[in-house]
């Protein structure tokens, strides 16, 4: 691979893969070496390689099969035959009726835009489908289903339905969770990379004591997404040779993401004998709560303490100061889910797992540490 001045290494790796695919050096369904082996080949870190592979998978150049590895996919630049018949009449986003108010959040609205765009390109209708506690899904062979966040009240009836539909090869994909015993494709966010990006940003600004605010019952009982972000945090510390300190982890037991957790986390950290110089909040709502607490306690952000959030909520662009955050790219969640649905319906090769890479959005709430 020839070095490209001014181009990030992960992008150079992506370009190298695409070039080899175009030249026929890498052919559809060719197996790839492991992430560790590729890191050695390209002489880069596992995190850089992880990001490159995530973007390649997102764009359809590679696909992953759980427990088997990664493989070269079909070149997405090759358009489908315009004369091919459309197999799906509609795609449903399945949600719980009792949680309909959550769908007004930007996380879902952005995801819906991604689904809607791919449906429009394929001439297919997109609808929301509310299900009750019995999880009854319509028996429509010419429909595709995207299922998100139904595990809180998972019933045997839903599992029976999904097992039957897997056997029938129905068009179904899940987002942010998967069933280990079912061969169903799923879309997940790369929370490890997100946690790494947030922490690496603060470390690059000279911060060495970085507090983290997470949601869970305890340090040992944390939501999977937050646990993965914490893993990314620890990986970043290790890459900078910074020792991990458990006292810099604040875990709050809350039913949902809110500003109160961030407020309490900030107050906890400032009560320490040696408080952190920066805070990585596990969500934008917690980051906003930390910002409120800083203002109430007369701390200047970012002069006295830096704060970074996670999610990419629209309001982060309008706070004072504007919040630095990690954008989950939920539009891509929806778009990729819909793409996989159509690939299933056409009997095409598809990714068993699609991992959506996040982006760091640097704004005004983070700055170089004061010496």
TrEMBL record:
One Pfam family name is Peripla_BP_3
Is RNA-binding set as a keyword in this record? no
Enumerate the UniProt keywords alphabetically. DNA-binding, Transcription, Transcription regulation
Does Transcription appear among the keywords? Answer: yes
One of the entry's Gene Ontology molecular-function terms is: DNA binding
What InterPro entries does its record include? LacI/GalR-like_sensor (IPR046335), Peripla_BP_I (IPR028082), Tscrpt_reg_HTH_GntR (IPR000524), WH-like_DNA-bd_sf (IPR036388), WH_DNA-bd_sf (IPR036390)
The protein's superkingdom reads: Bacteria
Domain HTH gntR-type residues, every copy = 7-75
Q: Which Gene3D superfamilies match?
A: 3.40.50.2300, Winged helix-like DNA-binding domain superfamily/Winged helix DNA-binding domain
Q: Which PROSITE patterns match?
A: HTH_GNTR
What name goes with this protein?
A: DNA-binding LacI/PurR family transcriptional regulator
The organism encoding this protein is Paenibacillus eucommiae
